[in-house]
Structure formats: C-alpha cells, structure tokens
C-alpha cells in the first residue's frame, strides 16, 4: 500500500490516525462524562460540547497563520505535544461536581483545541510537500487517498474503543 511512496507518508498517516482515534474516542463518551461527573443536564452538556467543537474547527485558522510565520513541522510537533498534555490533564482524577474539576476540564479542552489547531491543517501541507520532488509528484493523489484512509481507520475504531473502555470502567 505504501510501496513507492516517500517514507514520511507512513509516519504522517500514522500520526493522523492516532490523533483522530484519540479525538473521536473522547467525543464518543464526552457528553456522558459531563453528565456523570458534573451533573449537567443535556442542554448544558450540549453547549459545552458545541463550544469545544467550534474551537476545534476554527483553531486551524490560527494554526495556519502560526505555521506561515514559524514552520509546518514545528506546528505539527507542538500540536501533538499540546494535545497530549490536554488529554493527560483530562485524565487526572478530580473531585465530582467541583468548580476546580470544571476549571481543569476547561483548561484541558482548550489545550486539546489549540493542539488540534496547530496539528490538523498543517499535517496535510506536510503530506503535500513530500510530493514536490519530481520522483514522487505523480503519486500525490494516491498518497492523499492513503492519508485520508488512515484518518478513517482511526475514526472507525474509536467508538469501539470507547465502548470497550466504558465496559471495563463500569
């Protein structure tokens, strides 16, 4: 599948698979988590969920602006690190229904959104840059097909992983 493709395509695809897997695993149980941990009703939980999704989808605009001034690879690596810190903070056990727990959650969501903004759009540019070499330029379309297939693989297995984690935790 990755034969005759630059070696970087495999690494970038794997990075995006992992990022999407983590993101969709978290989203699969996020509303239930908000309701169980903080006692929010569906309206408040939905507003927090929607606010987080809005941040995730608009932060790549800022991530692209930063990458134009910094570099795409630095943004991608920084984005992964920031997302990782956000997920780790979210995983810290905190008190149920406390203000400090909500502040920690909001901080972790903000870190995840910022990391996604730095990572998401800039990774595609790096994939495209692999094919600026004349040797690989004819394989650009196939590369993006493989790259987006890897995204879908991460997204497809995330709900199953979330279900398995919930079953183990309960």
What's the quaternary structure here? single chain
Q: How much helix, percentage-wise, in residues?
A: over 70%
Count the DSSP helices: 5
Largest sheet: none
Element string (H = helix, E = strand): HHHHH
- End-to-end Cα distance, whole Å, is 39 Å
Mean pLDDT: 91
SS class: mainly alpha
Query: How much beta, percentage-wise?
Result: under 5%
Overall strand count = 0
In the predicted model, the low-confidence regions spanning at least 5 consecutive residues are: none
Q: What is the global morphology?
A: elongated
Give the radius of gyration. Answer: 18 Å
In short:
The protein has helices at 7-38, 42-69, 72-90, 99-129, 140-169.
Question: Mind explaining what this structure looks like?
Answer:
This protein is mainly α. It is 82% helix and 0% strand. It has five helices and no strands. The chain has helices at residues 7-38, 42-69, 72-90, 99-129, 140-169. Helix 1 runs parallel beside helix 5 and helix 2 (42-69) runs antiparallel to helix 3 (72-90). The termini are far apart. The mean pLDDT is 91.
Structure characteristics:
170 residues; mainly alpha
Detail the topology: elements first, then pairings:
Elements: H1 7-38, H2 42-69, H3 72-90, H4 99-129, H5 140-169
Helix pairs in contact: 1-2, 1-4, 1-5, 2-3, 2-4, 3-4
